[in-house]
Amino acid sequence: MTLLIGLPILGAILLAFAPKRLAWATALLASLATLLNALALTFPQTIRHNWIPSIGAQFLLHLDGISYLLVILTALMTLLGILASPVKPKAFYAMLLLLAACCHGVFLAQDLLLFFVCFEAVLIPMYYLISIHGAEDRRRAAFKFLLYTVAGSVALLIGFITLYTQHAAATGVYTFDLASLLNTRLAPAIERLVFWALFLGFAIKIPMFPFHTWLPDAHTQAPTAGSVMLAAVLLKMGTYGFIRFSLPLLPRATADAQILATLSIAAILYGGWVCLGQTDWKRLIAFSSVSHLGFCTLGIFSLNAAGLSGSILQQINHGISTGLLFLLAGFAYDRRHTRRIADYGGLAKTMPGFAAVFMMALLGSIGLPLLNGFVGEFTILRGAYQAQPWWAATALIGIVLAAAYMLSLYRHTMLGPASNEANIDLPDLTAREWLIVAPLLIWSVWIGIKPSGHFAAIEAPVEAIVERLRP
Amino acid sequence: MVNLVANFWWIPLYPLFGAAIIAFIRRGASVIAPLMVALSFIHGLIVYSSPRGGTLDHTLTQWMPGLPFRFAADDLSLLMVLIVSGIGLLIHIYSIGYMAKEPGFWRYFACLNLFVFFMLLLVLASNLAVLFAGWEGVGLASYLLIGFHHDRPTVNRNANKAFLYNRAGDAGFLLGTLILLSIAGNVEFSTINKLPASGLTLAAALLLALGATGKSAQLPLFVWLPDAMVGPTPVSALIHAATMVTAGIYLFARLAPFLAANPDAGLVIAILGAATSLIAATIAAVEHDIKRILAYSTVSQLGLMFLAAGLGATEAAMFHVTTHAFFKALLFLTAGNIIHALHGEQDIRYMGGLRDKMPWTFRLMTLAALSLAGFPGLAGFFSKDAILVAALKYPVFFAIALSVSFLTGAYSSRMLWAVFFGTYQRDAHEAHGNMLHTLWPLAIGSALAGYFGPHGELAWGVMLTSALVSLSGLYFGRSLRIPVVLKQLFARRWFINDAYEAVLVHAVTRKGARAANWFDSNLVDLIPHVPSSATTTLGLLLGWFDRFVVDGLVRLTAALFSLSSYPLRLVQSGRIQHYALAMVLTLALTLGWYLLA
């Protein structure tokens, strides 16, 4: 399991010594090895080493079904992201690999300090990817992304340290071990305070409405692999944080969940509505992420098994579908060097394969039954209905909006006459591009038709969380 | 020997494989696609005619927690299987000729096969969740086929419109499903049909009905269907007349005991159906586009089926679904022959005199139109009669149904006169091959299907009234006079579409989304900007403080030292003479001091 962090770092180190023409191959090999290693893992399993004994911090990793799915998603997206970026400098691949290592750390760490370190370390390679390899306005976007999320992290750190000191005050043991901290009983006021501190850290990272404005900028400016990692993996760190830490550690503070569910519904509707007014391909998908992540957080704050398992599955679904949508936007950008929707049109005639894959990605994203999105959304809505019927009723407007903005994007890019000369002779998907989209399409259909394996993997940890939430 | 009856769930899979194969090899569509639908039809026929002993069911897999992917087959679903695959097969064969010269021939058949798969999935579902998969799937196939000619902007716009109005209904459908799921723990039809009535079940029934108004093009969501006529005509015949749009009525029939337990929902369905039926019939009476006349006619007939289903007469409704499938498919396909012969002309004002040029099309279309109008003895007469009998207890509904019957006769004969009689305007040729031969089975059904319906005792009075009303409609249709004000109202489609466009497209989508976007980048973005600007300002202030206060103190101290050292500095001039002089003076003074003391 340590190899999940070790292999990408090893790959990054090797890259420093690899000759330039072998850089891509080295990175591919490292990410492929990581993915294969991840697939071979069994769960649950734990690794525990001393890290900083003087303050009780440990190198403590734990793999359960939730972590497993997110780690597979990360490893796969890293591989596909590298596969999608063939001609880049060595440092680019190295940063992608480091990013993967940090993300794996986030999804595996059971020690609060280790989690926090990984949570923050993710920013370094991502900042680099956006600010060096991004588009025209990359500096500002990268800076905004960095500062906004760091600001949230400060609150998160304060929350964690409060937990740490409260636990020490009660037991005399200084530890960041999640399993031990679960036994601390906090005073209700402090529990609530810590909950909101953690909320700030996670909500900015997801991002939840109204803390989302860094996302469209970062997504639009990031290079393809950066957008893919950002959408598919980084946004899940916040939702994962809520599920792994906020709910089990602070079960009594979840009385405030109503506010957060309301914010989630606002994100679903507002994100979808803003999408309708976008003129930039990547910016539109970025706002659609705000809406989709709204479903994920709604599931979490429904505080029941259906909501939570739906939310986890939907996080994977969002990774698959939005990852695919960003990859496709990247393929189109590689050909035309523009993100403006109005510059496209009529691509279905010249690139039928591309148009077909785009349609599949879109349908998965808007929740057409027999594809991935429906299973997640429906399960979340089940949970939301159990918690509060009107939550489900209002969130449902989001699925109509999703169809509206996605079909509009499809119509203006893929359909219609190819009025722009530059769009007439574009080549269809290459073999490499087919290889990139194929695993995501297969995963999407798999979840859509037979999600039972996924549900079974997360059943036990979800049950454990729900058990803690019972009054 | 495989047991075809037990494996009835293979029925939808043939066209699914067909669609997949065609999409991959991109050739041979004209053989594979009809063959796959034929297999479904034959399999369906075998299951239908075999002794079954109750409802068949088969669980394929556990789909979502508590929601199995389960199929079920009984007489009702098998009747739908036969309609869908039978008429589907004819339209597949017809399309070989109709679409022969189209680029994207394989794509058309892949989508058509995909549609048949989803429709068969819909009718063979054992619970609401699986039905919903087919339900949204047929919407997708419909979207893809309406938008078949995707290089034309209006086509894409209308395809989107169809999908979105359906999706709006589907959102209601899903909420209804969620309610039932929370009450009963599963959404098997057998469970739902036994639920005791409550406020929640009523809400669920109404929400499912909202879904049905989307799919079956009824008020308040009917406006997409006429615009869907931009799709290829065989698609209009199969999806937008014979099969998909009847899914709502199928749903009501499937849930008949549930609706009977919630009669208020049934009443709402009946009111919506009656209102839609009348409104659509008036619009059909003033339309000029032949396909749109048929589309409004479909909306109107579906309204009658809603009326019957809402009043609990699901047998009558399904009877009309069956006969309507025959005569409306025949109407669309004969209209397709005319449009084909006139190279795309659809306006009946530019037709006329085609009787001699297209004699078979003329005879077949007349038969279908008369069946639609309820000409005594033809299929439509009997099924409409069944609906009238069901409405007999409610004078208002009965009156509306009779008015619709009159209008149906009127617009049918108006269309026939305009297309086939009068002066001949264009060159045209009779259809041949597949495009004619596939019409015969439909013609037989349009004429005779009425004799195989569920006959209760014959209500002679209703029959006679109905016959007189339809015949007078047919008679007056040729020279129908409508007051100008009403004609305006009908021609503008009762302003329903305009109102939706103004609110949904113009206000919400265009202006609203632009406003939301402005709000986001100017106001919501203040959340990070206010603290960051505040920090920057504070930084500037601190910088000022640092430079002038902190650094000032340091410099002040330095200045004080500097000032205090001024006298000393005067002494330290660096000139050797001064130092020598100071030494001499100091020495002299010291010596003097000793000497004097």
- What best-fitting shape of chain B do the alpha-carbon axes yield? elongated
Low-confidence stretches of chain B: none
Residue-averaged pLDDT of chain B: 89
Order of helices and strands of chain B: HHEEHHHHHHHHHHHHHHHHHHHHHHHHH
Using only C-alpha atoms, the radius of gyration of chain B works out to: 39 Å
How much strand of chain A?
under 5%
> What structural category arises from helix and sheet content of chain B?
mainly alpha
Distance between the termini of chain A: 35 Å
Oligomer: heterodimer
Average pLDDT reading of chain A: 91
**Principal-axes shape call of chain A:** globular
SSE series of chain A: HHEEHHHHHHHHHHHHHHHHHHH
Q: Strand order within the widest sheet of chain B?
A: 1-2
Using a beta-carbon cutoff below 8 angstroms, give the protein chain pair with the largest interface and the number of residues from each chain: A-B, 57 and 50 residues
Number of helices of chain A: 21
Observed structural traits:
heterodimer, A: 471 residues, mainly alpha, two-stranded antiparallel ribbon, 21 helices, B: 597 residues, 2 strands
Q: How would you describe this structure to a colleague?
A:
The complex is a heterodimer of chains A (471) and B (597). With 471 residues, chain A is mainly α. Chain A contains 21 helices and two strands. Chain A is 75% helix and 3% strand. Chain B is an all-alpha fold and 597 residues long. Chain B has a domain at 10-149. Chain B contains 27 helices and two strands. A two-stranded antiparallel sheet of chain B has the order 1-2. Chain B starts with 12 loop residues before the first helix and ends with a helix. Chains A and B meet through α7, α12, α17, α18 and α19 of A and β1, α5, α6, α24 and α25 of B.
Task: Summarize the SSE layout with pairings.
The complex is a heterodimer of chains A (471) and B (597).
Chain A: H1 3-17, H2 23-40, E1 45-52, E2 57-63, H3 65-83, H4 90-108, H5 112-121, H6 123-133, H7 138-171, H8 178-181, H9 188-205, H10 214-221, H11 224-249, H12 257-275, H13 281-301, H14 305-336, H15 347-350, H16 352-366, H17 372-387, H18 389-395, H19 397-414, H20 431-449, H21 452-469
Antiparallel strand pairs in A: 1-2
Chain B: H1 13-25, H2 29-49, E1 56-64, E2 67-73, H3 75-98, H4 105-124, H5 128-146, H6 153-184, H7 189-192, H8 199-215, H9 224-227, H10 233-242, H11 247-254, H12 256-261, H13 263-284, H14 290-310, H15 314-341, H16 354-357, H17 359-373, H18 379-391, H19 395-420, H20 434-437, H21 439-448, H22 460-476, H23 484-491, H24 496-524, H25 526-564, H26 566-571, H27 576-596
Antiparallel strand pairs in B: 1-2
Helix pairs in contact in B: 1-2, 1-4, 2-3, 2-4, 3-4, 3-10, 3-15, 4-5, 5-6, 5-10, 6-8, 8-11, 8-13, 10-15, 11-14, 11-15, 13-14, 13-19, 14-15, 14-18, 14-19, 15-17, 15-18, 15-21, 17-19, 17-21, 18-19, 18-22, 19-22
